[in-house]
Amino acid sequence: MMHMTFYWSKKVTLLFDSWKTDSWTSYTLSLLACLIVSIFYQLLENRRIRLKLLASGKPFPAEIEAPLLRRTFAGSGAKLGVRVAGAVLFGLSSAIGYFLMLSVMSYNGGVFIAIVVGLAVGYLLFRSDGEDSVVVDSSCACA
Hints:
Blueprint: E1 12-13, E2 20-21, H1 24-56, H2 76-104, H3 109-127
Antiparallel strand pairs: 1-2
InterPro entries: Cop_transporter (IPR007274)
Protein name: Copper transport protein
Subcellular location: Membrane
């Protein structure tokens, strides 16, 4: 039976029936996986925002400059490629965001804390560098 309130236990089922924890080792590894996926989610969002800024031609911080990235795109094919890459990043980021949301809905306190800490650490590492001036569209409330 699914829990409908927060509980603290090493026994949790995450996302799939086959992902069940029954020992402290499997529970700890699952929490670590949740933490890493949460950090990766913030990295993907950072890359999507940077790609969006690069494609729009708007000014952005100097640290985004890279020798392999050009501010101007030669033709419509390059612009289409950037739009497709942005759409792929958005889709992947949305899928991971929804998986994180469903994991939190397991109502396990440790899973909740691992995901929130992972999102905070990921934000600190990848997204706290002056993106305040950027309006970002997102499909997930945790973005």
